Amino acid sequence: MNQSTTTQRVQMTTADPSAIGLFGLAMVTLVASSAKLGWTDGVSFVLPWAIFLGGLAQLFAAIQDAKHNNTFGTTAFAAFGLFWFGVGTSWLIDFGVFGEAAAQAVDPHQLGIAYIGYLIFSIFMTVGAMETNKVLFIIFVLIDFLFIGLSLSTLGVAPHATHMVAALAELLIAIMSFYGSAASVLNVHFGKVTLPIGKPFGIFK
After folding, report:
1. What is the percent of the chain with per-residue pLDDT over 70, rounded to a whole number?
2. In sequence order, what are the residues at sequence separation of 6 or more whose Cβ sits closer than 8 angstroms to the Cβ of residue 199?
3. Residue 186: Cβ within 10 Å count
4. pTM of the entire structure?
5. Which of 19, 24, 98, 152 could form a disulfide with 53 if both were Cys (CB 3.0 to 4.6 A apart)?
6. Which residues, other chains included, contact 190 with Cβ-Cβ below 8 Å and sequence gap of 6+?
7. Residues of the chain by 3-state class (helix, strand, coil), percent to 5
8. pLDDT of 4 higher than 70
9. Average pLDDT estimate for 40-56
10. Tens of pLDDT, residues 71-120
């Protein structure tokens, strides 16, 4: 069996992982935004959702997307899955799980620099998302605003205002990701467009 036939067979027998990947993103951003907005307190109970939904669910989606030869989906889900593992580990360091010396040596500005790195990543992925669907494009635009807010607030630039930008963007990411997840499931399940996601812009392709 040649490689082309094998790839076609994998694509036919492997379900679209977007639904579970977007659900993972929706859950972790919903819970995390509740803390940023002051609806809940602390991040102790954000950690499980960061690890299992933000991290593992999106990494699983990335692996499955790789079987579809989907470079964009694989990269997006893997990068954001690893992001939540990184954020969760940062919280654990801050809690002193890795020792008091590590906790006392924390410099929040390093997280700000990491957020800038993810902002750069998110911007060029936003360009790519223009040729996927409009729901995914909106999610990436909101992720851009999330990282703008996180970067500036962590680096001490108008911290209250930029923190609120991040909080509201994260809540909207959760809402749009729930919608995208539902559309991925129901449109395939019912064999018709139950929840529209919008056509690609058609600018680059």
Report:
1. 94
2. 133, 134
3. 14
4. 0.92
5. 24
6. none
7. 75, 0, 25
8. no
9. 97
10. 999 999 999 999 999 999 999 999 999 999 999 999 999 999 999 999 99
Residue 30 has a CB neighbour count (10 Å cut-off) of 18
- Residue 119, phi then psi, degrees to nearest 5: -65, -45
How far is 132 from 201, CA to CA, in rounded Å?
A: 8
Asked if 148 and 162 touch (Cβ cutoff 8 Å), the reply is: yes
Task: Please list, in sequence order, all residues whose beta carbon lies within 8 angstroms of the beta carbon of residue 116, skipping any fewer than 6 positions away.
Answer: 147, 151
Q: Which of 112, 144, 113, 121 is nearest to 75 (CA)?
A: 121
What does the block give as tokens for 65? 């997307």
Nearest Cα residue to 20 out of 81, 79, 70, 67 = 81
Residues in the chain, total: 205
- What is the DSSP-derived secondary structure letter of residue 68? T
Q: Which residues contact 13 (CB under 8 A, 6 or more apart)?
A: none
Q: Left (φ > 0), alpha (ψ -120 to 50) or beta: where does 202 sit?
A: left
Q: Give the span between the Cα atoms of 181 and 177, in whole angstroms.
A: 6
Report the 10 Å Cβ neighbour count for 109: 11
Give the DSSP H/E element, type plus range, for residue 40. none
- The whole-number pLDDT of residue 14 equals 81
